[in-house]
Specification:
Layout: E1 2-13, E2 16-28, E3 33-38, H1 44-51, E4 59-64, E5 67-68, H2 74-84, E6 85-88, H3 100-111, H4 117-126, H5 142-154, E7 160-164, H6 172-189, E8 192-196, H7 200-205, E9 208-213, E10 216-221, H8 225-229, H9 231-237
Parallel strand pairs: 3-8, 3-9, 6-7, 7-8
Antiparallel strand pairs: 1-2, 1-4, 4-5, 9-10
The structure holds adenosine-5'-triphosphate and magnesium ion (MG).
Length: 239
């Protein structure tokens, strides 16, 4: 579960303070698929960065499974991030001097004892790259690189996957492929999925859509959670 309490982010630009996020409060239960949408510059990537512990809020709190990550020093933050979160970037962000297999192995080696080789090979096969494992990023297409990035995000079996416009640089065939792999992870493994997207079709597939505008949440649809956590409904279920 992810909890955000009045998170704000500002940047001091000389004597001027630029407010990027102006007070975000939300709870994302485990297993939910959340789409974050909004105009360019509305703060989507900034919010995702805070949720993932890639960046810290200027004020407010971010709790990840009961751990207050807004308070953690970078070394501890890296540990939490490494075990709990798989992150997928629009621009893939693979390490150019490592092969596909080595890229996928990296988070495993940093976070988990023992060899992740079987796991990394299995994941690369799952994303359709069994014949490309020893290729370097420069030898792969954009869609293939993003699939390597997915395998890398999944390798430690993180409970949460976050993706910032993961299909933004891909054609529609590859985009669908990548999206389906993320969805499958959410549905089959119960992985929480927080996805930033410009695509209304993708957002419509989510359990929940959060709309940002000028650093604030202006719309939040939460269709499924209310009834299951409603004590009155729970009582009537019991007879
Ligand atoms: N380091 C920074 N310094 C100054 N302004 C910043 C910085 N990072 C982000 N911003 C500003 O904060 C606002 C939100 O940026 P953010 O990247 O979160 O938007 P976004 O919703 O992800 O946009 P896009 O859809 O274009 O990716 C933008 O106006 C951006 O210019
Ligand atoms: Mg962005």
């Amino acid at each position: 579960m992810i909890e955000v309490r009045d998170a704000r982010k500002w940047i001091q630009n000389g004597s001027r303070r630029v407010d990027i996020l102006k007070g975000i409060t939300l709870t994302i239960p485990a297993g939910q698929f959340v789409a974050i949408v909004g105009a360019s510059g509305s703060g989507k990537s900034t919010l995702l960065g805070l949720l993932a512990g890639l960046d810290t809020p200027s004020s407010g709190e971010i709790w990840l499974d009961g751990v207050p990550i807004h308070n953690l020093a970078e070394a501890d933050l890296a540990t939490v991030r490494g075990k709990k979160i798989g992150f997928v970037f629009q621009s893939y962000q693979l390490i150019q001097t490592l092969t596909a297999l080595e890229n996928v192995l990296l988070p495993h080696e940093l976070n988990i004892a023992g060899s992740g080789l079987d796991q990394a090979r299995r994941l690369l096969t799952e994303v359709g790259l069994n014949e490309r494992m020893d290729h370097y990023p420069v030898q792969l297409s954009g869609g293939e690189q993003q699939r390597v990035a997915l395998a890398r995000a999944f390798v430690v079996e993180p409970p949460i996957v976050m993706a910032d416009e993961p299909t933004g640089n891909l054609d529609s065939t590859n985009g669908h492929l990548v999206l389906n792999l993320l969805l499958e992870r959410n549905r089959k493994a119960g992985t929480t999925l927080v996805l930033v997207t410009h695509d209304p079709e993708v957002a419509a597939m989510a359990d929940r859509k959060i709309v940002l505008k000028d650093g604030l949440v202006v719309e939040d649809t939460l269709p499924f959670v209310a009834s299951t956590t409603d004590p009155v409904a729970a009582r009537s279920d019991n007879g």
